[in-house]
Design brief:
single chain; 216 residues; mainly alpha; 9 helices; 44% helix
């Protein structure tokens, strides 16, 4: 049902789990963050606060692990830990799946330097350079076969990759798996939810209306 909702032509957003998940998100916001003020917190500020050991937790991607805990940060590698968000009691669906998606590269067909861009991407995605990219100070695991070397990587990044490999499925981000207009409806409505100007029910009404308009 979830994947069906990614296509405006088949989307219904009828599952009550949507409102339930948004309600839980609101509870997390109220109990674990600055509340509505988190809308005014930049990505860089949140990451810096965590790396400086000024905040207890930070919801992040594996490519941020090395930026959060390294030889130069207040938060040391030995003190860094991570965990998956616990599955809610009574949750449906694939309980071993996790949220996330790999970083990717694209070359514009309108580029005047397509051959040069292709050569550059071959350079970046080589095994040798993949190992450089996956090691500090970059900490961005390479999807290239053999492009990640545990010998040089941050141990937290290595552990994170093993956790991903044990997942049954990677659920793409809402703003990448949906059509542009539906994705924009999700993003603006979720921001309004965090700010207190929309309820979970209103968020789903907005997303549902946008998907219906896209399907016409």
């Amino acid at each position: 049902m979830l994947e069906r909702d990614f296509d405006p032509k088949t989307a219904t957003y009828a599952d009550p789990g949507y409102v339930g998940a948004l309600t839980r998100f609101k509870e997390l916001e109220e109990r674990c963050t600055d509340g509505a003020a988190m809308n005014g917190t930049s990505y860089a500020s949140a990451l810096q606060a965590f790396a400086s050991a000024q905040s207890a937790m930070y919801y992040q991607e594996i490519l941020e692990f090395d930026q959060s805990a390294n030889a130069d940060s207040a938060l040391k590698v030995s003190d860094f830990g991570f965990f998956r968000l616990p599955v809610p009691q009574g949750a449906k669906g694939d309980l071993k799946s996790i949220e996330g998606a790999p970083e990717g590269y694209m070359i514009s067909s309108a580029s005047k330097n397509i051959p040069l861009a292709i050569d550059f991407m071959k350079f970046v995605t080589s095994k040798e350079n993949g190992q450089v990219l996956s090691a500090p100070p970059y900490g961005q695991p390479s999807a290239t076969v053999g492009g990640a070397s545990e010998a040089t990587m941050n141990p937290a990044v290595v552990a994170g990759l093993k956790d991903i490999n044990s997942a049954s499925y990677l659920m793409p981000w809402l703003d990448t798996v949906n059509t542009p207009r539906v994705a924009a409806a999700w993003l603006s409505s979720l921001q309004a939810l965090a700010g207190g100007s929309m309820t979970p029910v209103q968020v789903m009404d907005k997303v549902r209306q946008t998907a219906a308009a896209e399907a016409k």
